[in-house]
Every structure is written in C-alpha cells, then in structure tokens.
Amino acid sequence: MPEPVPVTMSPTLAADEALERRRRAGEQVLSLASGEIGLPVLPALRERLAAAAGRNAYGPVAGSAELRAAAAGYWGRRGHPADPDLVVCGPGSKPLLFALMLAVGGDVVVPVPSWVSYAAQARLAGARPVEVPTLPGEGGVPDPAALRAAVTAARAAGADPRCVVVTLPDNPTGTIATARTLRRLAEAARDLDLVIVSDEIYCDLVFEGGESAPSPAVFAPERTVVTTGLTKNLALGGWRTGVALLPAGPLGRRLRQRLTAVASQIWSTAPAPVQEAAAYAFEEPPEVVGYVAAALRLHETVVRAAAGSFAAIGAELTPVRATCYLYPDFEPLREQLLRAHGVADAVGLATLLAERYGVGVLPGTAFGEAGGTLRIRAATSRLYGATEAEQNAALTKSDPLRLPWIKASLDRLAAVLDDLSRSAADRDATPARV
Amino acid sequence: MPEPVPVTMSPTLAADEALERRRRAGEQVLSLASGEIGLPVLPALRERLAAAAGRNAYGPVAGSAELRAAAAGYWGRRGHPADPDLVVCGPGSKPLLFALMLAVGGDVVVPVPSWVSYAAQARLAGARPVEVPTLPGEGGVPDPAALRAAVTAARAAGADPRCVVVTLPDNPTGTIATARTLRRLAEAARDLDLVIVSDEIYCDLVFEGGESAPSPAVFAPERTVVTTGLTKNLALGGWRTGVALLPAGPLGRRLRQRLTAVASQIWSTAPAPVQEAAAYAFEEPPEVVGYVAAALRLHETVVRAAAGSFAAIGAELTPVRATCYLYPDFEPLREQLLRAHGVADAVGLATLLAERYGVGVLPGTAFGEAGGTLRIRAATSRLYGATEAEQNAALTKSDPLRLPWIKASLDRLAAVLDDLSRSAADRDATPARV
User: Fold this and answer.
1) pLDDT confidence tier of residue A209, bands split at 50, 70 and 90
2) C-alpha distance from B337 to closest chain A C-alpha (Å)
3) CA within 20 to 30 Å of A169's CA: A401, B42, B201, B340, which one?
4) CB within 8 A of A267, min separation 6: which ones?
5) Tens of pLDDT along A253-292?
6) Which of B145, B225, B129, B223 is nearest to B181 (CA)?
7) Nearest CA in chain A to B97
8) Rounded CA separation A188/A144 (Å)
9) Which residues of B touch A237 (CB under 8 A)?
10) Residue B260 C-alpha, separation from nearest chain A C-alpha, in angstroms
11) Are the beta carbons of A41 and B56 separated by less than 8 Å?
12) Which residues of A touch B260 (CB under 8 A)?
C-alpha cells in the first residue's frame, strides 16, 4: 500500500517565497537563493504571446507541429540532428523530467550534488534515488566508475536503477563535465543498460572562451534523452515551457509512446498560446540570439564579480564556466564560522546568512550533499534590477557592474562575507555595518 | 522495485488526435469523442492574456494572490465560503487532481463510470483504484452503500483507500447526483475517514430549470477538496489553468502543505500570464457571465437534439441535466448490432462508428465500464463550428439548430444512427447514404 510520499517543498521556490515575505515586511534582502532569472521578456516574444492569446485548443499532447519543428531545428544547430516526431513539449522541463522518470520506470541515479528536484521527483514517482558523487570540478555528471559500483550494488540489493540524470552545464556548481567523462558515462550507461536523461537547460549559458557544453547524446545517442526550456536563456520561467528530445531508434519510440501517455494523463498539453511564442523562440531569430548573448554576458560579469568576494575571504570555489551559479565551499573558514557564529554546517551557514544579514542562499544539503559540509549555492540572477528599466539597462550597458543597483548588491555581498569571515573578537571590537 | 506504470494515452486526447489525422487525410469526420469545447476565447480574456504577456516570474507555487482571491470569490458565490489561502492553482485541474492523489497518499476510490483519467492517474501515483458503481441516473458519485462495502473489503485485503473522487455534474453521463446521495456519501466518507475530492469543472453547465449541482463540500466541509477550472465553462482547455479549494481546518492545512510541495516539485507554478487572465475570469464580470450563459444554452440545445437521435433508434438514455455529454446505452439494440454489424460490445461499436461512418465516440470501457456493455459517450462540444465566425454565430443565434453546420452535423448523426439500427437485410436492400 502506497505511503504518502515524503515530499518537501522545492527549496528554491520555498526560499523565494520566504525572502519575498521578508521583503514585503520591509526588510532589506539580497536574494541569491533561487535561479529565477530577473530579466524582462524579450518584446518580440511578448508580442508573439499576445498575438496567440486566442489559441484555446489543446492540440497534440506532444506539442504543436510548429513548436516541435522549431525545437528540432534548435537542437540541430547544436549538433543533435533531431526528428520533430521525437520532440515532446511540456509545461516546463520540470514536469517532463518527472514524466520521463515514470515513463522509464525503475529507480533513478542522481549525481550529488544536483538540482533540488531530481531526487524529490524520483521519490514522487515511487523510485529510490541512487546517489553518486561527481568528479572534482565536473558537477552534474556522476563519476562513471562510482556509477558502475553504485548501480551494481543497488541491483544486488534489490533496487532497479534504469536511468541516470545528468546536468550540462551544471546546477548548482556552474561547472561543465568534460567530454572524456561523458564518454566514460556513455560506456557505463551502455554496459549497465541505463537511459541517460540529460538536462541541458543551461546549454546556452556557457561563458565566453568556453566551448559549448558537451552532451551525452553525442556519446550515447541511442539511449540519451535531452531536455531543455526557455526558463534560463530567455528568462521565461513563469511561462512554463520545456521540450524533450528522445533518442532515435526503438528505445526512443517506446519512450515517446510512454512519455506522451503519461503527459496525456497528468497535464494534457503545454499552454497553447505559450507554445506559439516558444516556437518562435526556438527558431532563434536575430533578436532572440541577441538577447541570449546579452544575458549571458551579464551573468558572466556578475557571477565573476560575486565569485571574487567569496574568494577574497578564503572560500574555495571551482572556476565557474557557465550559468549564474556559484557553489563556494566554506571549509577553509570552518573554525572561524564555529567560533564567531556557532555555525557548523551548510544549513547553519545559510540560516545565519538569511537571519543575520537578509542574504538568501541555499545550503548544499538542498542539492543532496551530506549534512556536515559547508557548501552553499548562490545565484546572481536576481541582482539585475528591481524594475524592467533597471533590468534592461543591465542587459544593454557595457559595464553592468557600474550600475548603482548591481554595484550596491555586490558591495553588500562583499561586506556581509567580510563580516562573516572575521573572528568573534574582531566583530565585538568593530560592530558590523552591513 | 517500481515497475513501469501501466499507462495508456488518455482516450479522449488519443481519439482527438486520431480524428484529426483522418480529417487531414480528407475524410469526413464527425467528432463526438473529446469534451474539448469548440468555442472561441472571450475577447476580454484574450485582451487580459495579451496584456499579461510580460509576466515571466514564477510567483507563489499556489498561484498569485489575485487569482486565489478571485477563485475564493467565485466559490463564495456558489455557497462555498473560501479562504484564498486554501486555494491552490495549477496548470489545469488535471495536474491538481493527480497531485492531490500524491498528497493524500494511499489508494483511490473512483466511481464507475467516471472520467478517463482518474483511475489512470491513481495508477501513475502508485495507487490502486478501487472501483465502485454509481446509482442509476446519478453518475459521478459512488453508491454510498457500495462504497462502504468496497472500502471495507479493500482494507481487509490490504489496500489502503484514503480518498474518493467524485464528479458533479458528471462526465460521462451528464447527470447530477442528488443531495440525498451526497449526504450519504458524506456520512460514509466520515465513517471511513476518506478525503472527498470533488471535481466540479462542469458546475456552471447545469441546464435551464435544473438547480445548481450540489457539492459534497456542503455535507462534509471538513474533508472535501473541490477542483475546477476554465476549460469547460469558458472553453479555455488550451490555456491550462485549474484551481483547488482545500477544506478549512487541520486536514486542509496539512493537505495544502503537501499539495504545494508536490506542485513545487512537479510543475513549479501555473503559467503566469494565464494566471492573470484567469483571475479576471474568476471575478465573473458581466461579459464572462454572459459568455457562460450563452455557451450553456448552446450545449443544452445541441445535446438535447443529439439525444433525440439516440432515443429515436431505441438507445436508452438517462435525461441529461448538464455538460455537453450523452451516455447512451445500446443494450436494446444488442441483437441488431450483432446481426447487422457483428458488434458485441462498446469497443466494437465505437470502432464501427469511427471506421464505417467517421464518427468519433468513446466506448464505456474508457470510463472504467466492464467490457460487455454497449454504452458509449458522445460529446457535442465540437459541433459548433469550424471557424471562429461559425462558433460566434452558434453562441449568439437564438436557434443554433438552424445554423447550417450544426444542422448538417446533427442530421448526419441521425442518419448514421438510423443506418446503424437497421437490420442487415434492410441495409443490403437499401444502401446507406450516410
């Protein structure tokens, strides 16, 4: 008999709502918790959605032919030749990931750390998450050797892992697994007969000088499902639209049938007006390409500046190569944090940052990390402005760090971190002014 | 270890897609399979959605404060005093129903017949549907005595039913359970400690002269969750928006926490621009009220005309009191159907109607009926016109039955049914011209 699933609120969305309550109560808050992108809708997309407001039919469960063709083209330009019949659209890539777990069945391998919802979704789907650590500096992909060992052990213990979820580029670490690791992942998945679900929602947010993120679909095309959406590159989280690309061949055909069946029973279709605007976005006309490039430059500039403040106090940080996320490790400050603040773990650190300083971050435990570590995730995507005018300025100015609101946020972050890193004695002598 | 869930495509959406393929192939089809409402978006709602196209933030998981307040007002005007904090919005009432099953946990009692997705969703949620027949002429609500017996037996057999789903007014039968039955349902649910999930998406589509459908929330307010949406009354299926009202008191608070947790992990939020338009709709300004009244009159007129054609050939039909659905029973024609067409059950009948006549209906088995019966469901909601101009005429003309496209569809239905009911000998003598 099914027990009520052990589900807790998504930590990112919960943190957002908590900070919003504090902001409304008049507190000064610095929101680094959720990865919601605080940028305006591109006017061309706004116009497309407005023009599609009369669309009220369900249309095909998998999404309109136009949207599927556009998404196939988008992937084709990124080295994944795609048949529109193998594209399935949903109200966000989040529900698609959940439905894929139901469609594949069995238990689910997730990297540690990884996005807050993979393991929670696996549990909601009745599966047990099998947690496998990532390699240093290569977040988002389980260490292939550890993956082999974990899946073999899980199967020996009666579990039934059938798919592995990966994130390229990675959330929470902002790093990108190497092609070599992906090749080894592909070999392991083939040997273990695992489906690879590759969440590539950040694939357009790789920093300048970096190559585009590699995809397991290149190394294991017969068994890799790729998902993406418009939430991150085009700041359209509130529009709820995502797409999945299933592998060509018999597995893909079987998965498509099961995925659309699950979709038909859980959500019917993605919102029709949004589908029309999304089709336009996936076609990547020049203004869309320009917006994504501007947003990427902004993320890179602000993330690197924020990273500097963490590095300045001695937190460890793998260089961030993509996304708007930092995943600093306060291990080198463990003694100071304990002495000055009584903080012994990431949850304590996040709580201190929120309650003493009004700074919202997420503890590494939200991403599946063990309790004792001192890693936190900080997202810079809410620092770009409180109004559309500010956000537009952030997108278009050549030096966004000089915009007063961005500068103020980054200065505040630096001051908070500085205060945090001082010893108790220092802090008593000089009351913090943060 | 979780097996892949036994999931099949939603029969309504599958039938829609199959008919659409035939239509594109140039065949003449009469689409009575799905309950999609073939009417245009009310211009005022179109404008609201267009004006909200710039909304791209997630906002609260449970939905915007404006939408929750508007939905609470809507329910308040229907005899359910509602706290906006107990309203949870989702991308359709379908995902809300699924998430409620996960939030309540345990197994799920469903009436037979009932909407195609309840039992399928229960299986996706890892639950076993416990099927309980309805009372004659009172579709949508399990016979309370049979409910007691079934739940007791299921528990004795190790199952764990914790909620019962009901539909008021009912899909597929177009009937409405009586207040007496609901009172008995409430008593049984209290004695058995079951949550009642009351799908009231058709509550605004009760025909003239009928009273509004009663709700179990009146008889068991402490344990009833009510769901609805804008799909049926305002023809906004493709917009994907639904709302749930949780009961006041400790159960409701617990359910709200679990439901929003599930929602945060599966879909995050309902599409933000749609939420804004939906808030306006739930406020029920005069043009919204006028649209619903016009649509209701149209459904009633066309459903009654179609019912006449089924009755004319001797099919049994409980008088339809709401919705756009008919649920005729061809049992009186069993011998003719077998002799003339080799048809022995509802699936055979639906197949014959689709393949020989191009008429799409759903067999009763799609609604959980046993295999041998001859009941089918026919929806009239796709007969109102192929273009927006035709659909607007259907909404506004005093006698929609005289509109050529509606008349042609109904005439064709009558001719098909007439041909179907004739004996093999008759049919050989006089080739059908349908």
Assistant:
1) confident
2) 32
3) A401
4) A90, A91, A95, B91, B92, B94, B95, B240, B267
5) 999 999 999 999 999 999 999 999 999 999 999 999 999 9
6) B145
7) A266
8) 6
9) 56-58, 268
10) 7
11) yes
12) 9
Residue A315 is encoded by which pair of tokens? 């937190």
How does residue A21 score in pLDDT terms, banded at 50, 70 and 90? confident
Q: Which of B10, B107, B271 sits opposite A238 (nearest CB)?
A: B271
Q: Are residues B60 and B30 in the same domain?
A: no
CB A251 within 8 A of CB A195: yes
The predicted model gives A177-183 an average pLDDT of: 97
Using DSSP, state whether B165 is helix, strand or coil.
strand
| Positions of chain B with pLDDT under 50 | 1-2, 433
pLDDT given for residue B398 in this prediction: 92
With respect to residue A52, please indicate whether it lies within any of the assigned structural domains: no
Share of chain A above pLDDT 70, in %: 96
The pLDDT of residue B27: 84
C-alpha B280/C-alpha A228 separation (Å) is 32
Q: State which of B230, B256, B284 marks the end of a domain.
A: B284
Query: How many structural domains are present in chain A?
Result: 2
B4–A41: do the CB atoms touch at under 8 Å? Answer: no
Residue B387 in contact with residue B406, Cβ under 8 Å? no
> Looking at the structure, do residues A189 and A242 belong to the same domain, yes or no?
yes
Whole-complex ipTM = 0.95
The alpha carbon of residue B328 is apart from the nearest alpha carbon of chain A, in Å, by 25
- pLDDT, tens only, A97-152: 999 999 999 999 999 999 999 999 999 999 999 999 999 999 999 999 999 999 99
Beta strands B359-360 and B325-326, pairing class:
unpaired
Are residues B274 and A270, on separate chains, in Cβ contact within 8 Å?
A: no
User: Using CB atoms, which residue from B9, B91, B126 is nearest to A240?
Assistant: B91
CB contact under 8 Å between A9 and B61, yes or no, is yes
Residue span of the structural domain in which B123 resides? 55-284
- Is residue B351 in a domain? yes
- Asked if residue A409 belongs to a domain, the reply is yes
Residues of B with Cβ-Cβ distance to A295 under 8 angstroms = none
